[in-house]
Amino acid sequence: MSGNQNYINHVALVLDASSSMSHLSRKVVEVADQQIAYLARRSRELDQETRVTVYVFADKVECVIYDKDVLRMPSLKQLYRVGGMTALLAAALKSQRELAQTAQLYGDHSFLTFVLTDGQENASHRCLDAPTRDPRELVEAVAEMIEVQEDNWTLAVLVPDQMGKREATQCGFPKDNIAIWDATSTQGLEEAGQVIRQATEKFMVGRTQGIRGSRAVFSTGAEAVNKDTIKAAGLTPVNPSEYQLIPVTRDAAIRDWVIERGHTYHTGGAFYQLSKSEKIQGQKQIAVLEKKTDRVYTGPEARALLGLPDVEVRIKPDLNDDFTIFVQSTSVNRKLVPNTRLLLMR
Prior knowledge:
Blueprint: E1 7-16, H1 25-46, E2 49-57, E3 61-69, H2 88-99, E4 108-116, H3 135-148, E5 153-159, H4 162-170, E6 178-180, H5 186-208, H6 227-232, E7 243-248, E8 252-253, H7 254-260, E9 270-273, E10 278-280, E11 286-290, E12 295-297, H8 300-305, E13 313-315, E14 323-328, E15 335-336, E16 340-345
Parallel strand pairs: 1-2, 1-4, 4-5, 5-6
Antiparallel strand pairs: 2-3, 7-16, 8-15, 9-14, 9-16, 10-13, 11-12, 11-14
Helix pairs in contact: 1-5, 2-3
């Protein structure tokens, strides 16, 4: 296809509507509606066409919206009703099988599905949508389906606990496409919504750089960074004369340490090394350091590289053999951690 590539995203939400979700049902609608509003905004900004499909599942799997333009989506208020068991595997199979029938003509099409569940699979073997009645065969069917999906398919799942994660892994979900959420509270669901939004942002920004699908859609943090993603994000290294790396050898406040080492402190000019999981505000700059070369990459692309949206999100330092993350400090008494480094921009 010549000229401008026409990006078409098919984003599906596959939502658990079993009885145990009843205490969260209003919040599910709110979080889904927010996700759709966010998709609409980013589709306009990035000039990507986005089409949304919504499945709800309990004893049976029902498609309530199919491949509809994100700019014309209704609220899910009238469409999400809870009651019944959890036909999780049947929902995964049916949603992917039906979406695979979507025409992929004239454009660069990509499929992104989020399955959200608060419990374990317990009803697919009785579900009319399931291809088999045998629970073991159902697990194998999902694993096989995921294995043969093309590179423009991304299937991710949010589960309530480690047991759910183990089951999802057995079903062949890539480990970085599985996230755990707190299914006991509306706050937990709110946070799950943020995780989905973060993953979507990474996906849509990746699309503009020619990435068609992902097996690490939930990885934010150092493990999301590698040579390919740096190249894809169009990052250019900062000129070495414009920054300095200063070892931190003891507990100290950031301004004190900069001055003690003989430098001038400018607010916003010092970046601390991310050493624990923490919330990063939308306006904070991020820098990524290549360990082998001490090259530094920064700018909005560095945020995009980590899949960070322009809102506050939690990010993990995840150990990465090749790269270290630095975060801009806007406070003068940010406590520095010994045995880390400080990045000082000139």
